[in-house]
Amino acid sequence: MAPVIELQHKTSASRSDSTGRWLILAVVSAAQFMCVLDLWVVNIALPTLQRDFAPVTLSDVVWTLNVYMILLATLLVPAGRLADSRGRRALFLAGLALFGVASLGCALAPTLPVLIVWRALQAVGAAVLMPTSLGLALPAFAPHERSTAVGVWAAVGAVAAGSGPVLGGLLVDASWRWIFLINVPIVLGTLAAGSVLLPRDGERVEQRVDFVGTLLILGSTALVCAGLIQAPVWPAFLSWSAVGTGLVLAAFFARHALRHPSPVVSPRMFRVRRFAASAVGLLTYFVGFAAVLLGTTLMLTDRLHVSALEAALAIVPGPMTSGICSLFYGRVAARVGVRNMIVAGAGLFVIAGAWPLVSAGEELSYAVAILPSMVLWGIANALLMPTLFAAADAVPRADVTSGAAVLMMARQLGSALGVAFLVLLLGASNVAGLVGVQYAWALVIVSGLVTAVAGLFAESSRATPVDDALEPARSRLTVIRHDRAAA
Hints:
Layout: H1 2-19, H2 21-40, H3 46-52, H4 58-61, H5 63-86, H6 88-108, H7 112-137, H8 146-172, H9 178-181, H10 183-197, H11 211-229, H12 236-259, H13 273-303, H14 308-315, H15 317-326, H16 329-336, H17 338-359, H18 366-389, H19 400-429, H20 433-456, H21 466-486
Helix pairs in contact: 2-7, 2-8, 2-10, 5-6, 5-7, 5-11, 5-19, 6-7, 6-10, 7-19, 8-14, 8-15, 8-16, 8-18, 11-12, 11-19, 13-14, 13-18, 13-19, 13-20, 15-18, 17-18, 17-20, 19-20
């Protein structure tokens, strides 16, 4: 009789856990929203910061954005690896607290250097939060529900990216300090909810800390991002030297990872075809993602002569469409399959990039040329982002958070590449208006095509992690053993 009682107790506990899985997703999605929002919200405040901290230059003020982007991309993978070995819940709550304290420090910063230091600490907190958020959410859902969970998580990120400039414009009208102060109550609420709702870390296997690998990945990512982001400001020799040195360090890291018994990025993750294809797909897709955001802004401000806030509002239909469509992602993904989702999304992204080139005439019309492109981009994003990020669930269970961190780093590198390439092309061509931003749509088309090719190498159906596939059999085996013991 004891085994039956024990089994009933486990079933009741399982049902209790299932009722809280959406609350867990809400907690980690709130953290994801803040991290993505603070990546984009500062853009609109740069001119105001330059005026308030005068006589600083725009190049000086841009470091409030660059330090966040560089450190976030650099620390994602080491932070994900640390969370996998030391506990996702503990690292998530620590990262959340650091992000809140740093946000308050940014809001109270008396000088630009102090603001940059607090932004750096804010990036450290975000680097811990972003991979652990997905690592905590996925195990809370059954395998067949995880595509829906990732769809919601990705929709929150899309809405944050799209609303960042708009929210920034509204808050800056009062004071630029509000773009950081708004994080504090969100952090406090999320911290309180997370302390109660997030599952306790289970038994963990202590792993050797790969200090050499961590330093190599820190150096390579920081140098590549710095060289690309600062390309418009630094001399060409310095920028490309930084990029080249970063690539050399990346090669050394790859060699080191193959030989180390417990590397910071496990090569076994890239033996999973879906994961490898998704990492490449995210890198190439976000080249176009960043280009379409910047290119659309330039088209609106240079050709239609609208304000920065009006341009941000004109872009909103894209992220909003993505957020709405992402809510239905789980149902569509179950029928269509991974490969078809990536190829279809990339195809729509190519059409979104080609639309302004085909439809724009002498008199540029927002309703005819830009709005349809934004809607197509939103649908493409709803198909691509959840599918590509869900590949974190395809790696071995012990590497879920590290896998999510690698995918997020691919997103950051792709964004840096997209902005850098577009700025370089515009500077080299020395043209403005519609002719100049045609380069943005060219980048979108190329990135979409390469993403589609990467998608062809993914599995045609949703990959199921080995641990999850074996779980029903393990449960049945446990019950059989209990029955035999009782007999």
